[in-house]
Amino acid sequence: MAPSTSSSVTLNINGEKHTLSVDHRTTLLDALRERLDLTGTKKGCDQGQCGACTVLVDGRRTVSCLQLAVASDDREITTVEGVAEGDRLHPVQQAFLDLDGFQCGYCTPGQICSAIGVIEEHAAGWPSAVTEDVRPEAGPPPLTPEEIKERMSGNLCRCGAYVQIAEAVARAAAETRTETEEAAA
């Protein structure tokens, strides 16, 4: 008897469970786009180099073209369709709109998901390749333009909206910090 080449998986996407039978070779990206009609996540290079397909898996940035759907079973997946809270845009989405952080828009969903991950990683004190003081007691480094550029470097924009993207990430990070501080007070 030949081994099965497909499995049943449950994908928890944007707070909703979807059970699918998928070929073991099916990527998360293809499951999202082709099987669940969640086309906000874009297919760019299909090799993990451009970031257009970035989603959040258990809160961590993931290029969905390299993640197998079977490896995403029972994990929390957030796509660009799930980052807003009802009619209220996520602070990153709002900053991208306000600061024109997109041109053609193709890379924007991946940029937005990546920026959300960047802000959370920074707030947690994770260093980047340009962080000067990586000691845990140093806390989060200042979120300088250099930090933002390094942290967002896995997402390419063929239109060249990098300056506006970095400004949008900085604004959203500041707004997120303010909201967190107000909630703690």
TrEMBL record:
Keyword presence, Zinc: no
InterPro entries hit by this protein: 2Fe-2S-bd (IPR002888), 2Fe-2S-bd_dom_sf (IPR036884), 2Fe-2S_ferredoxin-like_sf (IPR036010), 2Fe-2S_ferredoxin-type (IPR001041), 2Fe2S_fd_BS (IPR006058), Aldehyde_Oxdr_Iron-Sulfur (IPR052914), Beta-grasp_dom_sf (IPR012675)
Record-annotated 2Fe-2S ferredoxin-type domain positions: 7-83
SUPFAM superfamilies membership: 2Fe-2S ferredoxin-like, CO dehydrogenase ISP C-domain like
Entry keywords, A to Z: Iron, Metal-binding, Oxidoreductase
UniProt keyword Iron present: yes
Gene3D superfamilies documented for this protein: 3.10.20.30, [2Fe-2S]-binding domain
PANTHER family with a match to the protein in the record: OXIDOREDUCTASE WITH IRON-SULFUR SUBUNIT, OXIDOREDUCTASE, IRON-SULPHUR BINDING SUBUNIT-RELATED-RELATED
Name by which UniProt lists this protein: 2Fe-2S iron-sulfur cluster-binding protein
Source species: Streptomyces griseoloalbus
